[in-house]
Protein 1
Amino acid sequence: MAEVEVVVAHHECATLRVGELFLKIDTDQARADVEVEAMSLAPIPTPEVLWRKPPVLALAALPGRALGRLGEPSTASPEAWAAAGAAVRRVHDAPLPPWPGRSPGDFAADLDRECEWLVANSVLPADLVTRNREIAEAALRPWTPVFIHGDLQIAHVFTDGDEITGVLDWTEAARGDALFDLATLTLGHEEHLGDVIDGYGADVDLDVIRAWWSTRSLLGIRWLVEHGFDPAAPGCEIDVLKSGM
């Protein structure tokens, strides 16, 4: 009998793996609705939906293995990273999803709130927060919305050799900034940014990519701490913020 593996579990949802089956348990049905519809719209491989009985969504496992993990060196080839960039470009070139995403103003308000919390609770030094808030400002410019994945961590991109076999976890899919996805994919793995851009096949503003690295890290730390994760682990969000100093 296959063992039950807890892939991720926190206060909002949990994902279990049983053999070649993933069970996502999420009481937020609106978020689950977005995931199912986004996967149906995405022009790249996504997990097959086997069945859905709220609050549980059953997905078939993707073949291969994750492109990497934040805080760990990636063993994937440059060609696999380039293939990931090409897959992202196909998503961005697809028709927009019918629901909106966050605006630059939304991000600015969220950043101000999180930066205040980080300093008030002595989570990070004030100068580190202030400097990265300044860097983040470059991302908060008007952009032409595209279909974005919205949470394109490398752990969500699966490869087999140099090929992308699929992308999972589409709960944050929406209309948004293309460079947000590229930054999320390369967060903590700056050495592979060139490979991703080569595969993406378009000019990319590196200052905006760096700005999204700071933005995502500043916005994520409180959530990670409150859900039992460690943003101070080597190579993770706090190290990303320090690298911008």
Protein 2
Amino acid sequence: MSTQVTEHIPAEGAPAPGTGTGRHGRAGRRPAGQRPPLRHRVITVSLLTVAALYFLVPVYWLAVSATKSSSDLFGTFGFWFHDPHPIDYLRRVLTYDDGIYVRWFGNSLLYAGAGALAATLLSAAAGYALAKFPFPGREGVFNIVLAGVLIPGTALALPLYLLFSEMGFANTYASVLLPSMVSPFGVYLCRIYATAAVPDSLLEAARIDGAGEARIFTVLGLRLMTPALVTVFLFQFVHIWNNFLLPLVMLSDSDLYPIQLGLTSWQGYADRQPELYQYTVGGAFLSVLPLMVLMGMLQRYWRTGLTEGSVKA
């Protein structure tokens, strides 16, 4: 018995099997798994390096300056250490004026932590409702929220102060906390994310099983919206932590100051008390540590695709 093998001969002008019309195969596409050209990788790494240096160099300068005395801040090279005593200088920052910096730090944690948490929950509820419950005027409400995103906070500081003064809330914790609990950007982001990440079929299945709307929102909605909620919390926490104008307008009692306003008050007296220059720099260095820790802890939740596989096509 013999085996006959027939060789396939392509037509004239047609490419041979396994060959493409472009440099990297079919239709000029790069084969899967092949690395991009060297020049593209060099450009990408260079741009990322420049961006990293842009953000990290100020933090490095702050860390170096926090180890120097007030005289060394102005008399030595700013990007290198000179007779460093970081523990001693930071201890002075924490104990100066009966530990007022520790109180400012606690106030900032209260304003940023409670305000960001409340803003995140309110944004999640509002965004979920706008995305999943049709009602008359829904788009009008959403347009008002978008308008709130476009209004700068500086334009609202004076009206808020007048309103809170009439209500008797000026120069209290509530005068900073209550405005911090509202985030139009958070409502916008949660509405967009809930529309895409929370399937209607999953909600209908939960309703058929007898779950109430509040339970569906807390058990399913919040869990599926976790990446958006983490984003809103981080943005709002950083915004409140770095907010300077609102506490400046609302507060007159130094015991209620957040860190940013307190360090500014120190800087105002530094000409008469030169050691306050060093305390201000050391306090600024300590103030960035919570943001770094928070970002490192929450970035692992900053991912998408949590609903993949939850609903069969």
Protein 3
Amino acid sequence: MHPTLLKEAALWRGCTVALYGGSFNPGHEGHVHVAKEALKRLGVDAVWVLISPGNPLKRDEAMAPYEARKKSIQTLVGGHPRIHITDIEPRLGTLYTADTVMKLQKLMPKTRFIWIMGADSLMSFDRWRCWRDIARAVPIAVFDRPGYALSGFAGGFVRQFSRFRVPVQQLSKAKTPAWAFVTIPRHTASATEIRSQRGKNWPAQS
């Protein structure tokens, strides 16, 4: 295990942390908007932005190098004291969310974690590896995104875990499984549209 992880675990003892995973290919203002809304609405101490080393569900998509994706969101977040851009997944050696969550909970048993994602991910959540285990391990906050809520609610996760939906105000203290749908002022930024506008070499132009 990476030697800095045990030291970090002590720093976060007793805290509640929202884990915001994704490709961030590239990061954009919509991602920052969700992170800031999570701080306001979930009662968490911090948001950790986890830049995935890769996305198993997007193997055919042009994926920029890790450092370029990290820089794209880091630049937008700036020095926000409660939004942390972290490379903890590469240091943990995990690719799948389930493995990341389980390792973090083992490493930091005194830290409470909440998983946050956009409604676009809700559609495909039942295709994630060990998705039921994720739902049983951590509360999940699903943030509204334009055009995705309806299809997301028709997905397998909502059908199976519908009875475990709780008000967002209760999520941080809820016993798992628990999830909440978080309605926020919508932001129209889209990584897909940004890549389309900038072309395949977006990292060189950012």
Protein 4
Amino acid sequence: MLDVRRMQMLRAVVSSGSVTAAAARLGYTPSAISQQVAALEKEAGTELLERVGRGVRPTAAGLLLTEHADAIARQVGEAETALADLLAGRTGRLSVRYFATAGAALVAPAVARLRTEHPRVQIELKLIDPEDPLPDVREGRADLALVVGPQAAAHEGVRLLHLLDDPYLAVLPKGHPLATRRTLELAELAEEPWVGSEWPGPCLDAQLAACEAAGFRPRFVVDSEDYVTAQGFVAAGLGVTLIPRLGLGGRHPDVVVRQLRAPEPTRSIHAAVRETAPPQPALEAFVEALRVAAGG
């Protein structure tokens, strides 16, 4: 097998025209250069240099290896440039998992900011169930996932970065007696029929924990799988519901939205990253872009 380092020494000898000049350029003694070229000739099984006056010139085999050494040097230079770009965050590839309501409010502006500041960073976006995207992060299939609540704390190897607290708002039919108030206490909804806006999981847990703190458990009369559908049931007069602020992108014309207190139900949104992941400037830039989008 040909030694790449020795090929680069041969390249220096050929380009400078003599062993002495190559040694001065590389910082070796002439005898050390001669020994390495001799070792390369033994590896190649043929002579690589011939004497011409006080200098040397490559044989056909020496010229061939010199050309390949040039190509290797170019590739190494390109690799060094690519590595420097990656370590500086100018390039890279990120795989991101997110859930629907975080998409428009957080992910979209964060991606737009990253593309402006780091246009050569590639981002793979995948919409996922917010229940448990953490195995993808922990096992390295994703660099980052947006998650709700503290459930990630139970997963070894995952680190949570808090982005924002997303409060739930009360959604009432337009003609509801409480609709005239700007702020409601959560306990005032205790006797109301409720339209479910969340599937079981951390988002619903945040609602139920707040209701328990207010002294009641909501009576669900309708289950719906998304916030738009829940608003439709509320508009039809079937009950009231809670929807997080990020989930109120489009409001039904026949509902009103009111703030809650005592307590204010809130879901906590985090970016989950792998605890043992090596530093990635592109990932750090994306996390910062998410924090900006979240208002932090």
